[in-house]
Structure formats: structure tokens, C-alpha cells
Amino acid sequence: MPSSLLDYFPEAKGDGLRVTWARATNNKARLAAGLRNPAHLLEGDVSMSCNSRYPVPIMSPSASVPSDLTLEEWLQELLRYNNKGIQLDFQSTEVVEPACRVLARVADHVSYIL
Prior knowledge:
By secondary structure, the protein is an alpha/beta fold. The chain has helices at about 30-35, 70-80, 95-105, and strands at about 20, 40-50, 55-60, 85-90. It is built from three helices and four strands, in the order βαββαβα.
């Protein structure tokens, strides 16, 4: 098991300044581009959907901005590639608990950094 974050990214050659991010991968197109990108980590914003009867965590910088990806769909797509770390930016405190429930459902299948 790797002992530090940098152990996950041998191409960074032990230098944290060489770890790169693909930022704002909040929709299907940006996520696909991020997965093709040589970046080590994918970053996305998590908000609580306000457009459905049962609110769910979505990939969006704001609850008022529509999204074509739920957090669960975003994670499932990452599971298919399984070679990137992730950084989630929670946009409100109300989304943290539901997002953690989603993360718990997929955590056993993840071999990248959460």
C-alpha cells in the first residue's frame, strides 16, 4: 500500500509540484476530456440537485446550475478507467452527508485516491 500521496503518482518523481489536476470536470464532456488528459487528479464540484423530487448530489458548481451528471454517475465513469485520483469540492454543507453515502457505496471498488 502506498505510504504517501506521491506514491500513487510515480511519474511525478516524488515532487508534489508535478502532480496535475483536470479542474471542473462537472459535465460529461469535461469528464471525458479529463479522463483522456494526462492529469493525475480530476476535480469536480458537488452540489445538491434542486430540480428533482428527491434531491441527489450532482456535479455542478451551484444547485441552480443544471448538470448532466450525478455524483454517482461521475464516480461510475471513473471506475471504468480507475487510473485517476479525485478531488471533490462540496458546495454546501447539505450535500456532504448524501455525497458520503454515494462514496461509501463505491469505495470498495475504488483503487485510486479519494
